[in-house]
Every structure is written in structure tokens, then in C-alpha cells.
Amino acid sequence: MKDTNIVTTTLEDLGLIVTYSTLSLGAAYFAQLPGNYTLRPRLSSISSLNFAEMESFHNFFTGKEKGNTWR
């Protein structure tokens, strides 16, 4: 709980609104496993703008770490 409070305080100092959510922790964990798609906690669709804001596109595909043209 101490570490959670440190993270929460730091994020609030940056101007973010932080809330504790323990309602769907189990569902979020088990929804990662194959065949448990119905357990996902986010039932609404994600727009392409929201996806672009959450996704990091600066990594390499598996097996392509070396020999890229931009390196």
C-alpha cells in the first residue's frame, strides 16, 4: 500500500486523476488467457485515436532487432 500511495501522489502531482479500482482485477487477469474474451473488463470499443495514444510503436518486431535499414 505504501508504494501505491507514492505512485498515486506522484501522478497527482503531475495533474492526473488517479482512482483505485479493484472491482475487475480478476476478470482483467483471466481475460488475458485464450478463450476468456468474455471476461474482459473494458466492454466498450477503443477508438483509433485512443489506441494510438496507448500503443507504443517504437519497439522492434520479434526477430528483427538487427539488420534494420534505419540503424
TrEMBL record:
GO terms for molecular function: ATP binding. Pfam families: CagE_TrbE_VirB. Keywords: Plasmid. It comes from the Bacteria. Residues 4-42 form the CagE TrbE VirB component of type IV transporter system central domain. This is Type IV secretion system protein PtlC.
